[in-house]
Write a structure and sequence with these properties.
The chain is mainly alpha-helical. It is built from eleven helices and no strands. Helices cover about 60% and strands about 0% of the residues. The longest helix has 19 residues, at about 80-100. The chain binds a DNA duplex (13 and 12 nucleotides) through helix 2, helix 3, helix 6, helix 8 and helix 9.
Length: about 220
DNA sequence: GACCAGGCACATC
DNA sequence: GATGTGCATGGT
């Protein structure tokens, strides 16, 4: 695997789909909230939950921190898993207020490694959610690995299908220039590709990357 | 009605 | 350490 090849894939996707303008969210806190709500969930459902929070004028760290967890759960219901996600948002806010004065701005002072490590201590924030927050809310040079990215990389023989999160992240981070704009757009484009062409139980048909060596031994992932 | 969606923690072996 | 399971709504 070479950086050149990944860049070629990126350029091909950008030519095909155009810029995706990620992350869809107006503020860092909206991005963080969306990152938790979208766990294993269609973004259309997340939008409804975020719209509920916005129309209730509650989409700030302070207001959600003060809100009863059961009320929060009801507001985010459309996003699914609403009880556990309400708790996860509360866990994030407890950390923010207990350890960082309730100020997202305080997090800017932390190194990326430190911030990532702290995010991962929060129950409900795993590797992908942490990296989404780092890249899209804090503009840190971290490549986000999601289900689509893993599936696409495996099917196109960019990596072994058993590769874990760290190996996948290393693939992208060690073969691309550390550029948040690039990481942002590339990941968004991979999700776009995944949604349209890389379904779990069907081989891609007319995949935009089909000129790449497609590993036909791997039927499903 | 089955399948899928921009995961994660926890139980069990 | 690997594998299985609960969490849940809403669109196709």
């Amino acid at each position: 695997m070479t950086g050149k090849k990944l860049i070629e894939i990126y350029q091909l996707l950008l030519d095909r789909f155009g810029p995706q303008y990620w992350w869809p969210g107006e503020t860092p806190f909206e991005i963080i909230t969306g990152a938790v709500l979208t766990q294993n969930t269609n973004w259309a459902n997340v939008k409804k939950a975020i719209a509920n929070l916005k129309s209730a004028n509650l989409l700030t760290p302070q207001k959600l921190h003060n809100l009863d967890v059961l009320q929060l759960a009801q507001l985010i219901r459309p996003a699914g898993y609403y009880n556990i996600k309400a708790k996860r948002l509360k866990n994030f806010l407890a950390w923010l207020f207990n350890d960082h004065n309730g100020q997202l701005g305080c997090l800017e002072e932390l190194t990326t490694d430190r911030l990532r490590a702290e995010l991962l201590t929060i129950k409900g924030i795993g590797a992908e959610t942490a990296d989404s927050i780092l890249l899209y809310a804090f503009d840190r040079e971290t490549f986000v690995i999601d289900t689509y990215t893993a599936r696409i990389a495996a099917r196109h023989g960019l990596i072994e299908p058993e590769a874990d999160y760290e190996q996948l992240q290393l693939l992208f981070q060690s073969n691309l220039p550390a550029d948040t704009k690039l990481f942002n757009e590339f990941h968004a484009l991979l999700v776009r590709l995944g949604k349209e062409f890389c379904k779990p139980r069907a081989l891609c048909s007319r995949c935009p990357l089909e000129k790449l060596p497609h590993n036909l031994e791997i039927e499903y992932f």
